[in-house]
Amino acid sequence: KNEVEQSPQNLTAQEGEFITINCSYSVGISALHWLQQHPGGGIVSLFMLSSGKKKHGRLIATINIQEKHSSLHITASHPRDSAVYICAVRINYKLTFGKGTLLTVNP
Amino acid sequence: DSGVTQTPKHLITATGQRVTLRCSPRSGDLSVYWYQQSLDQGLQFLIQYYNGEERAKGNILERFSAQQFPDLHSELNLSSLELGDSALYFCASSVPGSEFGNEQFFGPGTRLTVL
Predict the structure, then answer these.
(1) Which of A17, A37, A7 lies closest to B109 in space, CA to CA?
(2) Distance CA B46, CA B62 (A)
(3) Which of B81, B41, B82 is nearest to B58 (CA)?
(4) Residues with Cβ < 8 Å from B85, sequence gap 6 or more?
């Protein structure tokens, strides 16, 4: 069993829809990262969380340490949000990655 | 642009060969991380250096080695290359870490193809 599980694996939405991507992990962590990878391959760090909630523009990330669960929300989705979203947990200086969620937002 | 640079962008080589991938971190960042992304394994942490010293090791093969130089740039050396080493190799950097770590800034990656 992977230490980091993401759902869904694939997600297709219409422009303007509210998107939620989930991440569950099985061990104690010191922080959780959300990353975005565009089709060209480049990786951008979206959030790093150790508790609570963070917001940046249309993106919101939450984490529940007790339930070992995090969510990434995208409000008013746009085709440019189409990318792979990757959850990663930090355990003893190391990041362990989920397999990613492929998001496609259609106009 | 994250401020992290990696060279080369693409590398095509043959099995059994040795290659060196180079990474320059953002100005002021002391930590450098190396990651491998392959189609079957996804993203995997290889190794971290902090101010020239190895800090953490992940799924790095014995055929692979890395170092961080006094100017803080880092090199990842891959030897006795196999077809399965074909992957995207990312470098990331971060500022001096807190207990919980810091946001990492990723380079554009080096795409290695082993034929």
Answers:
(1) A37
(2) 11
(3) B41
(4) B78, B112, B114
Q: Which residues of B touch A100 (CB under 8 A)?
A: 42
CB contact under 8 A, A90 and B111: no
Q: Residue A6 class from Cβ within 10 Å (0-12 exposed, 13-18 middle, 19+ buried)?
A: buried
Find residue A55's DSSP bridge partners.
Answer: A60
**In chain B, what residues touch A96 (CB-CB under 8 Å)?**
45
Interface contact flag, B109 A43, Cβ < 8 Å = yes
Which of B56, B88, B92 is closest, CB to CB, to A93? Answer: B56
Asked whether B109 and B90 are in contact (CB, 8 A), the reply is: yes
Q: What is the pLDDT of residues A14-52, one digit of tens each?
A: 999 999 999 999 988 888 999 999 987 899 999 999 899
Give the separation between CA A44 and CA A40, rounded to whole angstroms.
12
Q: How far is CA B47 from CA A53, A68, B95, in A?
A: 29, 25, 16
- Smallest CA–CA distance, residue B43 to chain A, in Å, is 6
User: Over the stretch A43-85, which tens digit does the pLDDT of each residue have?
Assistant: 999 999 989 999 999 999 999 999 999 999 999 999 999 999 9
Beta carbons of A94 and B45 less than 8 Å apart? yes
